[in-house]
Amino acid sequence: MRIVLLLTLSNLIGTPVLSQTLEKQSVMVQSKMQIEIWSDVMCPFCYIGKRHFEAAMRKFSGRDRIEVIWKSFQLDPSIPEETNPNLTATQYLASRKGISEQQVKMLHQQVEQMARTAGLEYHLDNTAVYNSFKVHRLIQLAKTKGLGDAAEEAFFRAHFTENKNLADLPVLTEIGKRIGLKEAEVQEALQNDLYADKVRQDIQEAGAIGVNGVPFFVFNRKYAISGAQPAEAFLQTLEKTFAEWKKDHPEATLEVSQGAVCTPDGECK
């Protein structure tokens, strides 16, 4: 596709419009294939799956043409918003799964070993039990500022490695500021219903496409990977999906004639 723009500039004091010989420049226009990831900060396999996906992306030659979109999901929305400081993760999971606390600890050890293999440090017996809805609200705001991935990473680490209570406002504020948000923005995310609605929309969308567990990776709304599968599985799906997508989204080159312009900051040259 070739577009030639002829630009003229007239200043604001009534001088005649000047025609200018323009210099041509080729500009590459690229669209991006979307990958959507449904996850919950309380899901240990979501953090592991994130690492496996990242490993695949490092090997993927088309990674510059991929847009990753994080989506909200709650594993247990029934947890009260008021945190019970006396409830341990071991007690919570034993009750929820109907197994003994000893069995829960054995499961924790297995998952912690998986995390170490992925380069992560988990302390699952000491994780806090809280309703993750507030965290998702903050992630939704972070996404609007291009900080979705940074938010996911920071909250995963805070939950599994640092064992922070992410229902606590000072903790949320601290982590929000750590990733580049202002304190007022954190307050906005927690008070403005817009971000609560975005969380609910993601959860409803998950139900509509059949997501019943996380992590869940959707590639160009055509293929999906459920669970923290090996990096090789992600890479194979990336390459397959991208090859198909690329046929319908070829790169376009605009031949732009450069001339005098005015920019939004008030500069005209």
Indicate the topology.
Elements: E1 23-29, E2 33-39, H1 44-59, E3 66-72, H2 89-97, H3 101-117, H4 133-144, H5 148-160, H6 169-178, H7 183-191, H8 193-208, E4 216-219, E5 223-226, H9 231-248, E6 252-258
Helix pairs in contact: 1-9, 2-3, 4-5, 4-7, 4-8
Q: Could you name the key traits of this structure?
A:
two-stranded antiparallel ribbon; single chain; disordered N terminus; 13% strand; alpha+beta; 269 residues; Glutaredoxin
Structure notes:
The chain is α+β, with helices and mostly antiparallel strands and 269 residues long. It is built from 9 helices and 6 strands. The strands form 2 sheets. Strands 3-2-4-5 form a 4-stranded mixed β-sheet. The longest helix is centred in the C-terminal third of the chain and has 18 residues, at 231-248. It starts with 22 loop residues before the first strand and ends in an 11-residue tail after the last strand. Residues 1-21 have low confidence and may be disordered.
Quick synopsis:
By secondary structure, the chain is of the alpha+beta class. The chain has helices at residues 44-59, 89-97, 101-117, 133-144, 148-160, 169-178, 183-191, 193-208, 231-248, and strands at 23-29, 33-39, 66-72, 216-219, 223-226, 252-258.
